[in-house]
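Supplementary Text 2. Reproducibility record for the structural model of the 949-residue chain.

All settings were left at their defaults, and a single model was retained for analysis rather than an ensemble. We include the record here because the model underlies the residue-level annotations in Supplementary Table 4.
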Amino acid sequence: MKKISLAYGIVAALFILFGTAEAWAQHTNKLAAILNGDTKEISIKQEFTFLNTSQTTLQEIYFNDWANAYSSKNTGLAKRFAEDFRRSLHLAKKKERGYTKIMSAVDSNYEGLRYKRTKDKDIIRIQLNEPLAPNESTKVFLTYTVKLPPDKFTSFGYDNKNGYYLKDWYLTPAIFDGEWQLYSNKNLEDLYTGLTNTTLNFTFPEGTYLASNFKSTQIVTTPQGQQTQLVGKNRKSCEIILSPEKKFITHVTDAISVTSDIEASRYDKISQGLSIFKITEFIADNLGKYPHDHLLVSEIDYAKSPLYGLNQLPSFIRPYEDKFQFEMKFFKTALRSILAESLYLNPRKEQWLNDAIANYLMIAYVEQHYPDQKLLGKLSKIWGIRSFNLAKMGFNEQYPFLYNLTARTNKDQPLTESNDSLIKFNQKVANKYKAGQGLSYLASYIGKDKVDSSIKTFYRFFKTQRTTTQDFKSILKRSSDVNIDWFFDTYVSTDRKIDFKIKEVEKLVDSLRVTIKNKEETDVPISLFGLKNDSVVSKYWFTGVDEISTFTIPRNGEEKLVLNYDQKIPEFNQRDNWKSLGGFLSGNKKLKFTFFRDSENPYYNQVFYVPIVNFNIYDGWTPGLRFYNKTLLQRPFVYDIAPAYSFREKALVGSGRISYIKYLSKSGLYVANYSLRGSTSHFNVNSRYSTVTPSISFGWRPKYLRSNNRQSLLFRYVNIFRDLDEGVIAAGDAPETPDYSVFNIRYRNVDNNILDYKSMLVDFQQADKFTKLSLELEYRKLFESNRQFNLRVYAGKFLRNKSDSDFFSFALDRPTDYLFDYGYLGRSEGSGIYSQQIIIAEGGFKSILDERYRFSNDWLATMNTSVNLWKWIEVYGDLGYVKNKNLPGKFVYDSGIRLNLVTDYFELYLPFYSNNGWEIAQPDYGEKIRFVVTVDLKTLVGLFTRDWF
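Retained model, structure tokens:
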């Protein structure tokens, strides 16, 4: 072991002597800053010495001005918020905006320097008066004021309790490595700046306590407030936390001095100190000595990257022991800070390596100190929960599990993808977990000692200097005696799925001939375990399985062969990973019924069941039981059957579907969905409808997965069967035929952005009695004045119409919904509260006009508009033209107030004026009010999760 470590040391030393990494800070920075607690402004005087370490003569230099990202609605940060459906920064008042105001910029000769901001407003280009040659330095003197934003946008700024969080708050140098690396502030915690020796004289308000990642001198009181000097060597940026209470405690351990306010209300301070000592010792042993004076570990930093999952539940239902909860919380936050402040990788392009090391060490910590810890913690012992497969999963099994949440839906992205191009769930969770699991996978393949040694060698020789993932790759490859190119070239650099299958096992006299299929043809190694009485009796690694390969292994009494038994490989599908050697019957998977939904158990055919309750006014409340096979992870083939009982109609109702989803690529045409759906319910008193609908749909998306643009093309054949009550027939409410079929083609193009929403729907329908074509366009615009404008245009035309009723006609205000697509609570109601429910479809009118113009059997064109008056109060107006066969056309209009509480989910429409006159002055006005309501739980959940996926 010592020989191996010595070899690594020699290699790393050569990197330092002859490589490109710097061994000391590039720049010198001196600042004097005064924080005004009344104005929330920081007055700064800065003397910056910029050293040109490149081989290029520079004509200009760039500084990161990340505080200015809060200055307007057009910064990179504001655009990022819009992509995540967050309107807070766009709607912010002027006094809430942060900004940087530069008073002067001069060089060492006191000559003025010209400067200009980039388009994202948070990077400053300074034109030098004289060219800066390689290995020469220049001084820049800057005077400016930073106006802090409130912390409601990000954690940066001030809170309402006289507290402050300052990070990346002054001007820092951008990186030049042959070209300028200019990264806008997108709330990703990935400032890329040069190493600097910084001295900061900081004055801050009385009555506040200071904590910092820099070394602080004694605090003295001056007429301007409290003052201290903060010093950081080979650092990026000074982080300061000011609070009205003294919350931070300094723990001095053998490995490091830690200042922390990590909370654990039910875990006493002495025990916390012992845990911190244990954690810092583990990090020092498995990573190396932290190169700076002390480490800042804060609740604020933890909140930005928490332990996602069960630990975020309210404290009274926390599933973990207090000790484990505290240690995981502290360990993750401390390790994240250590790596960010000592390994200076490109944080936007090479963040995966920091994530890999951090999560790999977290996996190792749990394996060493909590090997029996379950993912559900104490919940796994509770009756009714302990039988779930999820309750049997170990804590570390969450890493491949959460990665597969996006992999199973074709939303995973390569680890080398730029940090600002990742969808939120990948950026926050999936890619970090895949990176850590990847090193664990590699350690299982080449040996844990080799990976551990490589990490320590890399950290020892490349901390506090700029480095790249290539440096780590070189060390790791030298540590291994087998080829590991697959790890970097495939696992890290691509989004290729890993999926193997035991295709066949042939039993010979003293050996087993195993045929393995590589279903995705991804060039990575796969492990095979032999089990006897659920204990491992053999283990093998196989490589070079291009598609199908056969291997011969000795017999050791195995009863079962299992691929990836220890879960070290984040495999896409494990349902076909095992083969029983005990005969045909023993190889069959047993049927297992489980209440609610569970994680996949590859050894069973799982059927889930859950009680359901639906409602419409004809069936009343309809309790039922839903049976389905959809696990917590998406699977290609899904069935979902939900029989229910209508107490009002005293009859069975319900729905069911089977579908198969095939993902085709990452962008362009990316998915095909084959489906068969059926349902039966009542649409009037003692009148039942049943539907059977086969369909196929295709989906398109852009290469940039954060884009909210989606296109789809649907082909379906809707078959409707209806049994009509004699009373309904006698009342003349039935069309000429109770049963009908409609062939439907729909093309939809939606760009669902919070600032600019655009959608287009083209709908073609062919039936025995009609052929029709319609177009719907919708546009929403949120202006910089915070005024929102909505426009919807609809046009429909019958190409052929042999119907004698308005059942299939275009509707001005309330579609008949003959395809049973809409969630009407009372679809056949002509009066009463349920008739006032409105679905914004077809004509989209809110007022109920003359019966002669409510439907069109020829063509219809309408325009619906609205604009907000104050917050969610809007004024709306509708215009249209209705044309029926053998009748003159009619110009129609209405207007009123829209209470847009949650767009498309809960809205109220109060009509004022229309073709009917002043409706607000007419009797029974309450019956004219219309409402939009969504009761579908899946739709509502999507409202809160859309920014993550």
